[in-house]
Structures are given as C-alpha cells and as structure tokens.
Design a protein that fits this description.
heterodimer; A: mainly alpha; ABC transporter involved in vitamin B12 uptake, BtuC; 15 helices; 2 strands; 1% strand; B: 511 residues; Rossmann fold; 6-stranded mixed β-sheet; 22 strands; globular; binds adenosine-5'-triphosphate; binds magnesium ion
Chain lengths: 332, 511
C-alpha cells in the first residue's frame, strides 16, 4: 500500500516529466526530529542509565519498572483517546479512587470478588458516561467540567470510606498484583493488551477515526455528518471503562483501596500523553506515542531511584524532563 | 524596490520553490499567477517573513533581509492581506487598525480618543464608511479586507501583498477594491497581487510573473501577454490536455441505485422548495430542480442564497414552507439527517468548515461515509486508499501521496479534496458553495466538467456563488435572489453577465 506507487504519481509523471524524482531519496532520509523526539530522549535515557547503573537492565529491574508504570500506562490510554478528540479528562484519577473503593468496600462486606470487580467497572463506566453527557450538552470546556467531577468524586470516596483505607482485596491481589508466565507481572500484560486495543481502536475503528476528526475540526466534522455529541459521549464513556480497569489493577497491586489513591494520576496521565506526542489541542497523537511518554517517566524515576536521589530532586528532574520533551515537539 | 533573488524552498516531499527571482517596482501592481500548488503562497510567506527560504535572498529597498520574521518584514514596510483575515474578531475596527502600535497616554495606558481619531482619518482617506466602534466579527468579508488594508497603511506599508483578495467578494466590492488599489499605487505603494482570475489581473497589473511547479516561467509586461498565453504558460503546454478527461468512474458517482430510471425521464422535480421562509431574509421562495440539472443561485451577500443552503443541509430551520425530495417531504435538523436523505453541502470556506487539516487526504474523503469502508467493525484502510487514489487522479489533486495531511496542501487542492468528499457522499442533491473559489484556471474547467458529469448521472446540483461569469459557464439555469426573494429565473444560455449582475443589484432593469 506504499503511497509512492499510487496513480497520482503516474499522473504527475505523465503531465510533468522529470519532476520530483531526483529528490525522492533525499526527502526520505530527512528525519523529522519532532516526531521522534521522545523516542530519542527515551533511548538516550535508557543508555545513560544502563551505563551508570548496570542493575537497570536486569530482568527483575525491568519487570519492576514496567509494573510501576502499568497503572499510569493504562490510564494514559484513556487520557489519550480523550485528548485526541479535542477534550481532556481531569477526573480519571479520582475515578480510579472511587471505583477501587467501590470494589474494596463491597469485598469488605463479603460480596463475592467477581461481583465487586463488575461493580467497580460499572461505577467507572457510569462516571465516564456522565462526563460524556455533560461535555456533550454544555458549552463549558471539558477542563472545568471534569475538574468539577474530580472534586465531586474525591468527596464521595472520602465519604464512603470514612477516610480509612480498605486493606484487603483478596484474590485480586494475587491475580492482578501477581505474575503470570515466566514471572511477568500480570499488570504489565494487561497494560500491553490495553495499549494494543487502544491503538487498534484509534487506527482502525470508525469511532476512533471520528475522535481524530472532531478533535481536528469539529465544525468540518459536523458538516460531514458526524454526530458530534454522541461521539463525545462514547469517547468519555470509553475513557471511564479504561479507568475502571486501571482501578482494579491498582487495587490488586497495592492490595488496598483508598480515597486519595488516584490523586495526581490525572496530571501524570496528561503529562505522559503530551510528552509522548499526543498534543493537548486534539486531532493528533496515538497509543504508542503516549506509551513512550509513560515509559520515559518510568525510566527516569527508576534511574533516579537507583541513584538514590531524594524525592524532591526527583520531582525537579521530572519537571525538567517534561519541559524538555514538550519543547522538542514545539515546532510541529 | 522588492527584489527576490534565487529563492528556493523545500518541504518534505515537495520542492515548493526552485530558484525563483522577481522584481517589483514602486507604485506598480505586480501579479503572481500559477496553478494550484505552484508555490505562490509559499513565496508570499517568505517575502512576508512567515517562513525562511532554504536559499536565496530578499532585498527590499536595497536592504538584504537578514532575518525572516513577520515583525522584521513589517518593520521594513511589507504587509500581507490574507484572504481570510488576520484581524481580531472581538476587537473594534479602530483597535484592529492600530493594534500593537496604539498611541499611548503614558507608558502603560492606551490613548483611546487618539486611537479613534487616527483610525477615523485613515478610513476617511480610503473612503471606507464603517462604524469605528463595531466589532470586526460583525463586518462583511469585504469590509474586513478594507480594514486590513487600512491596518497595513497605518504601519506605513510600502508593499502590500494581496493573496486571492477577491475570492470572498461580490462584483461591486471587487470594483471598490480595484479603486482602492489604484489609489494606493498613485501614492507610490506597490502591490503584489495573487489571483486565479485572469481578467482581474489583466485589468490591474503592470507586469505578470508566472510560476509553474515552483519554477519561474517568465515575468512580462501585461501588454505583451494575452490571457490564453498566460494559461498556456501556467500549464506548461497546450491546455488542450484537459481534453482527455478521466471520466468519473462508474460506481463513484452513482446515486442510490434504487432511484428509478424513470426519474430521469419524467419531468418530476428532484428537489422542490415551496414557499420557503427562513432566517432573517428569506421570504416565500419557491424553486424546483429536475434531475440532471445544474442550477446557479446568485445574489449579493445577504440576498438569502446562503440561507437556502443552510435550510437544505439542516443548519437552519424554516419558519414556513416545505422542501420536497422526489415528491416526499424533506426535513433535516442536522447535516447528518440531510446526508442520510441524500443531500450534501460543500461549504465555501474549506479550511474552516470543510476539511480536517490534521487528517490525510484519504481520511478526509472517507470521513463522510465511514460505514462503507467498515467491515466487522474495522476500517478497511486498503479500500480507503483505493477510493482516495481514484479521486486524486480524477480531480488531479496535486500531492505526493494520499497519506499527505490536508494542512500541507495548497488552498486550491484543499478545495478539490472537499469536492472529492462531496462525490463520496453519494448525494442526490448536491449544493456547492463557491466551488471554484481559489482554484486555478484549468482546475476550474475540470470542476465545471465534473459538476456537469455528476448532473448527467441524474443528480440535482445547486451551485451558490457570487462569481456570475463562472456560473454562466457551466450551469443550465440561473436563479437570482435579492433581499430574500427570487427576482428572476433564467436559462444560462440566454443570460449574460451584465444582465445578471444588474438583477442582483436591482439596477437598470428597464434597459
Ligand atoms: N507546510 C507545508 N508542508 C508541506 N508542503 C507544503 C506546505 N505548504 C505548502 N506545501 C506544498 O508546497 C506547494 C506549493 O504550495 P503553495 O501553497 O505555495 O501553492 P499556491 O501556488 O499558493 O497554490 P493555490 O493556488 O492552490 O493556493 C504545494 O505542493 C503544497 O502542497
Ligand atoms: Mg495559495
């Protein structure tokens, strides 16, 4: 399906002899650094860390890094879909908290685990649906709508837990918090599946395509017959579902559920997506790109840990990385 | 005055300019022409500092440009008036004109009364009548353009670049603009004028520079050239090459196959509007279009032509009256509903309302009909590419590949992508607003041909445009609107330009 072989060039060749041909290879060799900025930074980061801290490349450390980023990675997929559609979802972190707490409290009261999991997913989906309806029906910017939702959900989670964490998630801890074959953490496998599905969704489904379209130009999409409101409802609902999966994963890994467990995750997911190359303005980006942002954050914090850098310095370093990565992409 | 020396510019996959040189003299109108994608806008961007060249240099009044930035260029007296304005819609006329260089009372306080006085003087000099306090958003495109020219003058512009300035203007407004341009020239200001309308260029320009595929073809005095010579030079060979048109492939243009053939034979109207009253101006409008006909709808801004399109595409609700499609009542509350019933609209401003700039050519075309390339819930990208490839060849969209982002196409080619979308929508009734706006001479003929061929497959085509000359070339009928009412409905063969123009303006009817 190489575009270069298309009929258009036959046509051009017919009409305009000896045009672009000599320059083709030069064009192809020309690398657009803004597209690969994150990849380059990521690879360089890995190499440097590996040189100074050989431990970094051990299997157990890699597994460690990956399981640390699994939850953020899953959540970033939710955020990526919303960002591409021209929106933003600040409530993903508090959604994780409330959905996790839902499962935890039900489990505490003796409800079977599988019911708890479905309840958590249902809760997360409902939150996404409400976000979607509010965003679709109102002219207010999704930033402020989901900010309201964030505060609201945090409040509810505090209220129902009474401020104290649920410290037992039963089998969830051994399933999602454990490993499957060859000692690979289940959460990492789950992350991989979610990323693949998100990539497939964005590239190959009509809804994914319309997400790009309305994020790029809502008016033109409307005039193309795309149901804008319905699309938005679907997008935010889907983000809710993915947040629910992140909630279960996090509860499993920690073997706990807590009202303030998701605090800051929303900003991290936005940062990871943007660093990876899914811009805030919508219409562009993708699952693999966003994943690179997540990996970069994970690698940096892991290498700082290995070098026993203090938490405050770590934050400073992370902030600098975010700024650098975003500046590299500025000129697109 | 302005000297462009061996300027080259390359984008990934496209050499937009190759060693182009030209010279503009003081107080003259210099025209820049070329087919869509020839590199005109790119050259403008370089001269105005919006983009640096890869090589070559710009010399202005003996000064070699050392830096490429809009503020640098404007400090030297170069201003660009773009077709779609760079004014701030929510600021007043006066504020826009003086923006960024307003008189101050103190270091931090703007002197409002001086702002209004200076703006008022300037507009008087240009004989532009407008309320200085009005927000720019409320003005017509024509006035906005004049405000932009005033803004350039306030900045002491010595060279004003007009990139397709007449695209959004009616005939009368075009005359106004020409007067203004001549007036500017008599004050020693130079104009670099870009347009696809050769008759305008032959009326205005002293010299013409022709670009083809990013190369300079020639620069000559207008008096040494003829319109057909320019067309030939732009195309690089005899324009008769268009005589081997790639016909619209079967299947591509086919409407719903359930439409019985009798519909073609019968004189029954495909689209009928009865007593339509809608929006601020439309009053009791009735018209009918049989299948196979191309109907031109013209009128000055605010005459109601645009509102008819809005009603047919579900963007405006009628107050009274009805619309019938093949005899059955039609109502649409959204474009989606209109498209489902077989009506499609190509809006007049492709960049704003038509295309999604971030998506590729192929993705834009398929957007209007995603279900047709969806199997088992997944988009069939190969089919999408094949469809796009067909349109790219039929419409001769100039792009290195169908994967190219639409934002990276020239204006005229974006317009063609939109037309491809309209074909892909498989509508029975097609409404085209200013379909040949910003399209080069040869492409215009192609679009005429495509529209005619579409109609021949049994569609009803409504073309809404202020370009009367263009409409007369390819429509069967011309419907003229004035103040929300139909003033005449005449066969395009009998109608002539001045007659229709006078009808739109409501003058000289007794002639
Ligand atoms: N930002 C960009 N990135 C890549 N290619 C570009 C970009 N801008 C323009 N081009 C390409 O450069 C060529 C020249 O474009 P340009 O806009 O200068 O044409 P033009 O002569 O103004 O055409 P039109 O009459 O259609 O406006 C085109 O092939 C276009 O696709
Ligand atoms: Mg142009």
């Amino acid at each position: 399906m190489s575009p270069e072989k298309g009929g258009n060039n036959q046509l051009e060749a017919k009409n305009r002899p000896a045009q672009k041909e000599p320059h083709r290879t030069a064009d192809r060799l020309r690398i657009d650094w803004t597209t690969y900025g994150t990849t380059v930074v990521l690879v360089v980061g890995i190499i440097i860390t590996a040189i100074f801290q050989p431990v970094f490349l051990t299997v157990s450390n890699i597994a460690n890094v990956l399981s640390q980023i699994a939850v953020l990675g899953i959540l970033t997929m939710a955020q990526t879909i919303v960002l591409i559609s021209g929106g933003i979802d600040l409530s993903v972190g508090s959604n994780v908290a409330l959905s996790g707490v839902t499962a935890g409290l039900l489990f505490l009261h003796g409800v079977p685990l599988w019911v708890d999991c479905f309840a958590a997913l249902g809760c997360a989906t409902a939150i996404g649906l409400i976000n979607g309806l509010l965003v679709a029906q109102n002219r207010a910017h999704p930033f402020i709508i989901t900010l309201g939702m964030l505060t609201l959900l945090e409040g509810i989670a505090e209220l129902v837990t009474g401020g104290s964490p649920v410290n037992d998630m039963g089998a969830l801890a051994t399933i999602l918090g454990g490993t499957i074959f060859f000692g690979i953490p289940t959460a990492v496998v789950l992350l991989f599946i979610i990323v693949v599905l998100t990539a497939l969704f964005l590239a190959r489904t009509p809804l994914g395509r319309t997400a790009y379209a309305i994020g790029g130009n809502e008016e033109a999409s409307y005039l193309s017959g795309i149901p804008i409101k319905r699309t938005k409802v679907y997008i935010y609902t889907l983000a809710g579902v993915i947040s629910g999966i992140a909630a279960l994963t996090l509860s499993g890994i920690l073997n706990a559920a807590e009202a303030n467990i998701g605090t800051g995750l929303e900003l991290q997911s936005i940062a990871a997506a943007v660093i990876g190359g899914t811009p805030l303005i919508g219409g562009r980006g993708g699952a693999w790109r966003s994943l690179q942002g997540v990996l970069l954050l994970g690698v940096v914090s892991n290498s700082l840990n290995l070098m026993s850098v203090g938490a405050n310095y770590q934050n400073i370093a992370l902030g600098v990385i975010v700024l650098i990565a975003v500046m590299v992409q500025k000129n697109r | 005055m302005l000297k462009v020396e061996n300027v080259s510019k390359q984008f990934p996959g496209v050499r937009a300019l190759r060693s182009v040189s030209l010279e503009v003299n003081p107080g003259r109108v210099h025209a820049l022409v070329g087919e869509n994608g020839a590199g005109k806008s790119t050259l403008v961007k370089i001269i105005s500092g919006a983009q640096p060249p890869d090589s070559g240099r710009i010399i202005f009044n003996g000064q070699v440009f050392e830096e490429y930035s809009p503020s640098y260029a404007s400090a030297y007296g170069i201003s660009v008036v773009y077709q779609r304005q760079q004014l701030v819609p929510m600021l007043s006329v006066a504020e826009n004109i003086l923006l960024g260089a307003q008189p101050r009372r103190t270091r931090f306080l703007i002197d409002r009364s001086a702002t209004y006085r200076i703006a008022g003087d300037l507009l008087n000099r240009l004989r532009v009548k407008v309320d200085l306090r009005k927000r720019v958003a409320e003005l017509t495109p024509a006035l906005q353009q004049e405000i932009a020219i005033a803004k350039a003058l306030y900045r002491q512009a010595k060279l004003i670049i007009l990139d397709e300035p007449t695209a959004a203007l009616g005939p009368k407004q075009i005359e106004r603009l020409f007067e203004l341009i001549r007036d500017l020239c008599s004050h020693g200001i130079s104009i670099l004028y870009i347009s696809h309308h050769l008759e305008e260029i032959f009326r205005l320009a002293d010299r013409i520079t022709i670009l083809r595929d990013g190369r300079l073809v020639t620069t000559q005095s207008t008096s040494d050239l003829t319109q057909s010579a320019v067309v030939n030079l732009m195309a690089g060979h005899d324009p008769q090459r268009v005589a081997e048109p790639a016909a619209i492939p079967a299947g591509m243009a086919e409407a719903n196959s359930e439409v019985p053939m009798e519909a073609l034979v019968a004189e029954e109207a495909l689209l009928e509007i009865r007593g339509l009253t809608a929006g601020p101006v439309l009053r009791n409008v009735s018209l009918s279009v049989p299948p196979g006909q191309v109907v031109g709808l013209t009128g000055i801004l605010g005459s109601g032509t645009h509102d008819i399109a809005q009603v047919l595409f579900g963007l405006m609700q009628p107050v009274s009256g009805e619309v019938l499609l093949e005899g059955t009542p039609f109502t649409a509350r959204s474009p989606q509903e209109a498209i489902a019933q077989g009506v499609f609209l190509v809006p007049e401003n492709p960049a704003r309302d038509g295309v999604v700039a971030q998506l590729s050519i192929a993705q834009n075309i398929s957007l209007v009909d995603l279900p047709s390339i969806t199997r088992f819930g997944l988009l069939q990208l190969r089919e999408e590419a094949q469809t796009a490839q067909k349109y790219v060849s039929v419409l001769r969209i100039a792009a290195p590949s169908i994967m190219r982002e639409v934002s990276k196409l020239s204006g005229g080619n974006q317009q063609k992508v939109l037309l491809a979308k309209a074909l892909q929508a498989r509508a029975r009734v097609l409404i085209l607003e200013e379909p040949t706006q910003g399209v080069d001479v040869n492409a215009k003929e192609e679009i005429h041909r495509i529209v005619r061929e579409l109609a021949a497959t049994g569609k009803a085509v409504l073309v809404i445009s202020t370009d009367i000359r263009d409409l007369l070339l390819f429509t069967d009928r011309m419907i003229v609107l004035r103040e929300g009412q139909i003033v005449d409905d005449l066969s395009a063969e009998e109608a002539d330009y001045t007659q229709v123009l006078n009808l739109t303006l409501g003058v000289g009817e007794s002639e």
